[in-house]
Amino acid sequence: MLTYSDTKTFTAEELGGLFSSVGWESAKYPDRLARAMKGFATVFSAREEGRLAGLLAAMDDGEMTAYIHYLLVLPAFQGRGIGRQLLRMALGRYRGYTRVVLHAEGKASTFYSANGFFKLDAVCMGIVPEDR
Predict the structure, then answer these.
(1) Which CATH number fits domain 2-103: 3.30.360.10, 3.40.50.720, 1.10.10.10, 3.40.630.30?
(2) pLDDT for 75-92, tens place per residue?
(3) Cβ(46)–Cβ(53) below 8 Å
């Protein structure tokens, strides 16, 4: 049975496993991920029999804008509505905000479009510090 919670405490191993399962580079830094979760304004997770099946982490300014930074579900659990439920929980938390934004690529764009998101006229930009 799936259970959902609002917690920021995870082991490095379970986060590393989740992020690795979807091929995200962040999986290389499980200890940093565990510490990072504590800094997010919102973290929702899904578990089945204690196993971390999905996670959503977002940051916000407390009034107007929220940014969903992570939404990922173990491949074995995808297609069961977990991502949709985590997203629903976050949108409930951010009801009344003027915008909720995220970055999406590939098939993730289809998922977010099906859940009410639309493409903004924006350019995603970044910088990678040389000393990381």
Answers:
(1) 3.40.630.30
(2) 999 999 999 999 999 999
(3) yes
